[in-house]
C-alpha cells in the first residue's frame, strides 16, 4: 500500500468516525475555495503540469501490453 492509499484509508475511516455531515460540508466548502484560490495564482503552471502528466500517462498506456499481447510462458 503506497502512502497515498494509506492516507486515503485513514481519512475515510476518520471521516466516518468523527465528522457530522455538516462538518464534512464545511470542510468541503473550505477546500473548494482553497482550490479556486490556488488555481487563480498558479493556473498557467498547473495547466502545464497537468498536460505533462496527461502526456506521460498516454505514453505509458501506449507502451503497456494489452491482455492479448502478454506472451505465453
From TrEMBL:
The domain of life is: Bacteria
Can you say what this protein is called?
A: Uncharacterized protein
Q: Which organism is it from?
A: Candidatus Kentrum sp. TUN
Amino acid at each position: 500500500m503506497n502512502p497515498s492509499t494509506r492516507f486515503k484509508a485513514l481519512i475515510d475511516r476518520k471521516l466516518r468516525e468523527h465528522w457530522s455531515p455538516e462538518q464534512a460540508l464545511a470542510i468541503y466548502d473550505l477546500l473548494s475555495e482553497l482550490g479556486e484560490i490556488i488555481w487563480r495564482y498558479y493556473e498557467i503552471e498547473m495547466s502545464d503540469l497537468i498536460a505533462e502528466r496527461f502526456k506521460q500517462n498516454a505514453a505509458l498506456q501506449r507502451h503497456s501490453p494489452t491482455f492479448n499481447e502478454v506472451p505465453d510462458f
